[in-house]
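Anyone up for a design puzzle?
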């Protein structure tokens, strides 16, 4: 019964947590002086904004139990880092209450908590002491920390000479191997290589039953991999909160959508009149296809200068980080394209799209001849496309497969 109660124990609790900042340094300093003398922290005006102030975090509420992982997601400036700093005790909320029960390990900034002139070994002892461990307890774990961080050769070298990856490995090694009750992880894991990231997630799996984890990342497959609940933040407020991690990820992706045309090059021969995704469903302002649907794109170009032959169309799909992931087969002399004196129009179809879940953008380039020479037009981000699927995977493609029983 004691073990069951321990697993259900609430370790992190945020009640109406809010934090405001001032846009102007001089005004901020003046407000600080006034607050000291007026003891504003306890008066009824704590939720009132003064001139030039804004809410970095506003009315955040959640409970996190042992064995649960909370994902905090949102675009830059959403308030995630400010909330983490309040959870870690680096800054105090202007309103609301935060309750943290147990030892807290945090990786909220690259190299944070390390003394740069001390060695890696000395920093392990310092960080362990901050977490509340005795020297004997640290000595029992130090070899495991060094092995995990994979920096045996450099453990007695000053941390100021460590690479960013080495700092992350050491920081995560201390935070995880010390097995804190609460572990706070910011975007720092993005610095590590894939092998180390996978090792980190295996460690999180191992310690999660006895730990409450707050995890911040822009990598949605990572969030989907470890989080049991999620908060989508926007302009300091919670826009979505709950255990439906997949829905929050869809909403996060939808905020990347932008249909602004970005013309990179044009010789004046052509101009794009229309570009539409056919048979796509509009969800939160983003054209969405289900995984396995047909991708159909309608293009219409206006001809401004006479063309003697059908141009070549090069259509590329990129992920949300603008990495090319696929190219559609180019047209040839047998392709069905409507070509008149004033316009070019066609629909290009890709059957049963198998890109994995996420948001993609579409670029197009047009050249004068089928062989791809003599560029006429290039436009980036002409369309945004979201692929929906219940599964979140790391890889850019989720390929259809069939399992066959062996008789």
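Challenge accepted. My sequence:
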């Amino acid at each position: 019964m004691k073990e069951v109660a321990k697993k259900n124990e609430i370790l992190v609790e945020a009640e109406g947590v809010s934090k405001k900042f001032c846009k102007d340094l001089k005004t901020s300093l003046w407000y600080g002086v006034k607050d000291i003398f007026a003891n504003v922290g306890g008066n009824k005006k704590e939720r009132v904004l003064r001139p030039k102030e804004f809410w970095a975090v506003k009315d955040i509420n959640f409970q996190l139990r042992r064995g649960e992982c909370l994902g905090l997601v949102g675009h830059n400036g959403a308030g995630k880092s400010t909330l983490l700093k309040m959870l870690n005790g680096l800054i105090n909320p202007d309103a609301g209450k935060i309750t943290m029960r147990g030892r807290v390990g945090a990786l909220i900034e690259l190299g944070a908590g390390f003394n740069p002139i001390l060695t890696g070994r000395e920093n392990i002892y310092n960080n362990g002491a901050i977490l509340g461990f005795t020297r004997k307890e640290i000595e029992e774990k130090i070899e495991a920390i060094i092995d995990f961080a994979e920096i045996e050769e450099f453990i007695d070298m000053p941390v100021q000479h460590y690479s960013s990856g080495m700092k992350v490995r050491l920081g995560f090694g201390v935070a995880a191997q010390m097995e804190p009750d609460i572990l706070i992880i910011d975007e720092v894991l993005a610095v590590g290589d894939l092998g180390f990231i996978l090792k980190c997630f295996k460690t999180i799996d191992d310690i999660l039953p006895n730990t409450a984890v707050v995890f911040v990342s822009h990598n949605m497959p990572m969030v989907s991999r470890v989080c049991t609940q999620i908060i989508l933040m926007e302009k300091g407020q919670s826009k979505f909160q709950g255990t439906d991690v997949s829905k929050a990820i869809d909403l996060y992706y939808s905020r990347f959508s932008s249909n602004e045309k970005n013309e990179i090059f044009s010789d004046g021969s052509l101009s794009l009149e229309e570009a539409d995704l056919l048979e796509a469903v509009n969800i939160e302002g983003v054209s969405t296809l289900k995984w396995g649907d047909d991708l159909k794109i309608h293009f219409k170009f206006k001809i401004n200068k006479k063309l003697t032959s059908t141009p070549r169309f090069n259509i590329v799909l990129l992920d949300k980080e603008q990495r090319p992931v696929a190219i559609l087969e180019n047209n040839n002399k047998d392709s069905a394209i409507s070509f008149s004196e004033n316009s070019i129009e066609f629909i290009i179809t890709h059957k049963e799209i198998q890109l994995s879940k996420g948001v993609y953008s579409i670029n197009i380039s047009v050249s004068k001849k089928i062989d791809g020479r003599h560029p006429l037009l290039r436009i980036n981000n002409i369309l945004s496309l979201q692929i929906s699927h219940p599964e979140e995977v790391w890889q850019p493609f989720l390929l259809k497969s069939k399992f066959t029983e062996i008789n």
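A detail worth pointing out: The two ends are 48 Å apart (CA to CA).
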